[in-house]
Amino acid sequence: MVLSARALPAGSRADSLQRLLSASRPDTSRVQLLIEMAWERTDDNPLVGVEYGQRGLRLARRLQYPVGECRALLMLGWAFMRTGNYTTAIQTQVQARRLAESIGYAGGIIHADNALGYAHLEQGSQRLSLRYFRRAIALAEKQHNVVLLTPILGNIGRAHLELGQPDSAWYFTWRGYQLDLQQHDMHSEIGDLSILGDIAARRQQPNQAQYFYQQTIVRAVGMPVSYATSRAYLGLARLARAQQQPAVALRYAQQALAAGQAGSYAKGVFEASDYLADLYATQGNSTDAYRFLRAAAATRDSLFSRARMSQVQALSFSEELHQQELAEQGERAAAQRRQNMLLLALAGLVGTAGFGYLLISRRHLRREVEFVQERQRLERRYSEDILDAEQKERRRVGADLHDSVGQLLSAAKMTLSALQHQLRLTEIAHKDLFANTLEMLDEAVREVRSISHKLVPNALTRHGLAKAVGSLLGRLTLAPSCLQARLEVAGLEEQRLDSTLENILFRMVQELVHNVTKHAQASEITVQLLATPQQVRIVVADNGQGFRQQQSPVAAGIGLRNVESRVAYLNGQLQITSAPGQGTSVVLDIPLRPVPMPAAASSRA
Questions:
Q1: Is residue 501 in a domain?
Q2: CATH code for position 487
């Protein structure tokens, strides 16, 4: 359960909205239609939902319609969340909440807090999610807004369930379910029914769990909620298996798979396929077990493909947010100039207005300065939250690659090996085919492990920046290009930097080294990490083809712009020196305050 929505036939409503949209004028009514269309498509195709949400956002900004702009941002946040792009989803919801606060839009604040809580809940941060949900509930109750309160209670119940607190989970979810019935909110009702089934199953109440799962399936007929029906069928399959009814469990698992496929719910297809593979493996049916393992792997690939497409959309959307930030900075600068002119005017009137007027003006100015300082502090904390969310997302994706895809590939290899022994192949061509297949699976396992380690370098977490950069350069020397890499370290042997700072510095070095390997056509690369108590200097130099100083390297691509923005965030300096045929040198000077390495961490190293 995520947002509140009334019961309407899914297909007919989308068609009706599309007809209204095609006949509408470019005014505030079209903004509302685009937002509603984005919500309708988010259930079955979140990428299309993102497109409609962006169209609504652009039109709202062009019309200077702040409420529509806030609602479009909220809808985009949910659409990005359905694609698995939690970093952009959180960034978008924070932007929506700031706008809602500035225009006094209480409903937007409640929606944003609920969405932020849900995003953190999806990533496993249950306690942090509860902080956002409770803040949303407090404002909804203060506003006496039962419609917005209804879907939040089930989210709180799910958070308590994942924390291992089934009694609290039951209390909040049951309250939410009663409000669902009062408000005729079928989307929220169906989601709450599936959660109540999960709670009953956790409390070892199989009959009650079966009742709620079956009610979920009955109420979901004709509704675009394949995620709920797929989960309900899978819950029934687990109950049947626990009751030693393998045939019934198999039938329910197949229905869960069919429900996920019918609604294009990739996560449900993956979970159902994986569960069916486990059921068949338990029964000794290795052929069907392998078939569903392959289906689960294919679905996982589609999930990653959808995530990559979402990232492409998020890049352009992030650029829009950046341009909006620049516009706001311009407005603040203009306001500051007006303030300075006012101060000059006030200074000219000091002689006639008297000391008392001057004192009042100084107090007013001090409040303005304090406000600007507080705004800057909040913006910096917001940037830190975004970087932390990005790192968490990298860890999550790396873990999913290693634990899910890697395990599936290993299982597939074991199954093939077993099949090879059972078939007792005699023809050389068949043996070679099996050997090549096993070799390709080994290569896939190594590739998945390599990607997961690149996303979250183990050396960076355990040993710090110097070891992580050394490991990065060590892999270069093993590559087919045979690029000679050298690392020079000074001042980092006995100390560790702040973990967030180390992560930012490593990503910048990683991007610069990637540019060298991709564009420089170099045979040698040197990386220097030189730390003092005041700053750390990073130098990345190569003997490649270079470029003219008047030109930006690699046409100022996204990677270099990311390096420049991170240097600016750290209040550092970036200097690039290059000439055609004479290689390139990039120097980063970052001010810092070193943090001594704890004794426990040193002993583990």
A1: yes
A2: 3.30.565.10
For 1-29, write each residue's pLDDT tens digit.
334 333 444 456 777 888 888 888 989 99
- Residue labelled with tokens 């040197």: 526
Residue entry with tokens 């396992």: 445
Residues 396-433 pLDDT 10s: 676 666 566 766 777 777 777 777 677 777 778 777 77
Residue type, 367: R
**Left (φ > 0), alpha (ψ -120 to 50) or beta: where does 154 sit?**
alpha
> Does the residue 553 lie in any domain?
yes
Beta strands 484-490; 524-531: pairing state: parallel
Q: Strand pairing partners for 531?
A: 536
Q: What are phi and psi of 264, to 5 degrees?
A: 55, 35
In Å, the largest CA–CA distance within the chain is 109
Q: Which residues neighbour 215 within 8 Å (Cβ) at sequence distance 6 or greater? A: 193
Extract the runs of DSSP E, i.e. beta strands, from 397-519.
484-490, 495-496
Rounded to an integer, what distance in angstroms lies between the CA atom of residue 141 and that of residue 118?
19
| SS3 of residue 132 by DSSP | helix
Residue 444 lies in a domain: no
C-alpha 356/C-alpha 318 separation (Å) is: 48
Residue 538 structure tokens = 């990073």
Q: Which amino acid is present at 149?
A: L
Which strand (E) or helix (H) includes residue 76?
A: helix 66-82
pLDDT of residue 605: 29
Is 42:79 a contact under the CB 8 Å cutoff?
yes
Could you tell me the CA-to-CA distances from 235 to 159, 226, 557 in Å, in that order? Answer: 18, 14, 48
Q: What percent of the chain has pLDDT over 70?
A: 75
Question: How is 217-248 classified by DSSP, letter by letter?
Answer: HHHTTTSS-HHHHHHHHHHHHHHHHHTT-HHH
Burial class (CB within 10 angstroms; exposed 0-12, middle 13-18, buried 19+) of 111: buried
CA 92 – CA 76 distance, rounded (Å): 7
φ and ψ at residue 546, rounded to 5 degrees: 70, -170
- 250 Cβ neighbours under 8 A, 6+ residues apart: 237, 276, 279
For 363-416, the DSSP string reads: HHHHHHHHHHHHHHHHHHHHHHHHHHHHHHHHHHHHHHIIIIIHHHHHHHHHHH
Quote the DSSP letter at residue 534: S
- Measured from the Cβ of residue 602, the count of other Cβ atoms closer than 10 Å reads 12
Question: For residues 455-494, b (16+ Cβ closer than 10 Å) or e, as one string?
Answer: bbbebbeebbbbbbbbbbbeebeeeeeebebebebebbee
Parallel, antiparallel, or unpaired: how do β-strands 535-542 and 573-578 relate?
unpaired
Token representation of residue 566: 């991170």
- Residue span of the structural domain in which 509 resides: 462-593
Specify the number of domains making up the chain: 1
Residue 533 located in a structural domain: yes
The predicted pLDDT at position 595 comes to: 44
Pairing relation of β-strands 573-578 and 584-591?
Answer: antiparallel
